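Would you be willing to look carefully at the protein I have copied below?

:::
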Amino acid sequence: MAVIKPFKALRPRHDLADQVAALPYDVMNSEEAKEMVQGNEHSFLRIDRAEINFEEMPDPHDPKVYAKAREILDDMVETGRFIQDDQDCLYIYRQIMDGRAQTGLVACASVDDYYSNVIKKHEFTRPDKEQDRIDHIKALHAQTGPIFLTYRDNVEAVKIINGWIADHKPVYEFAAHNVEHICWVVDCPETIQRLTGLFAGIDHLYIADGHHRSAAACRVGMEMREQNPDPEAEFNYFLSVIFPASDLKIWPYNRLVVDLNGNTAEEFLEKVKENFAVDKAPAAPYAPEEKQTFGMYLEDTWYKLTPKPELVNTGDIIKDLDVAILQDHLLEPILNIQDPRRDERIEFVGGIRGVEELERRVKADMKVAFSMYPTSIEEILQVADSNQVMPPKSTWFEPKLLSGLFIHKLS
């Protein structure tokens, strides 16, 4: 059963929330981050991507970068730009994008639940990315990047959260990156107890996004536990925003390949036809309208690809995913993309950018593009429940959780 814990959030002063809040550190590179903070001394990117504070940007993993992040955070606390609640609270974080709302409960999840698989995962992590966040957490002695968790809907929990929203004014309300962000503080002990009790009856939480951040937070927690076995210490928990699954929208994660692996366009098309029905797309640009169909943009033409019947509905939950069908029956055998996680010939574009971006890139510097139908949240939950992992680049969640609105201090 899932353990959630209230905490004393370190958070921005009311009038600075829109300036502090920033996109997650891993959706941009250093140069982009430096551009984003121009004219904004309060941006949390100055802490999350602290290399941007140097005139000549150092290696982002240089110890002085993490030290600079701590220096800036301490200064923002000392100057009153960040405040800390004086009692343990839960928080509510609602995002509204294109008229659709997703409403999450901000709480701390349990390190022990992570390791016992009460909190289920669906991705592998890379040691170098884990180490970066480990060093960041240790330097700040705090977790700054919330983990995006989900759960199968619990009607009573949603009712309590919506009831609190109806009866209380938000502490933050602003628009950023075409999304409305609204936050509430839940400071009523009785309400907190009801919510923690309801989550104790939920069998599993699932990591939707943030596998590297959660792995890092848990590793730091276990290291600190060796020095201090106190089971109630803050390092035994990690910062999370927990959404009901029905609130979430997954966007497609489209593919671009830089060449045709030595084939001419005609040869490539003939090879594709061995495993797929190839038709001119009904629209241009083309985004698939149903599972087990794909768009392909090649030589100024959009095609609709439909895998042959024997390749789908095999009963294997992984092999039946659209991303696996494309990988196993086109990208690997025809284009020689053996390891999409590391092959530099393939790139991935979040569906939020639209299929027009695929056309633009093929005309600029790529050879062929594939538009995908989005993976469903139920497919993610089923893969996690079977203790398997999704193929690389299977999901793109939008909107992103902004960083800097809630910080969890480890002591």
About this structure: The domain at 253-373 is CATH 3.30.1760 (Conserved hypothetical protein from pyrococcus furiosus pfu- 392566-001, domain 2). The chain has two domains: 4-249+398-409, 253-373.
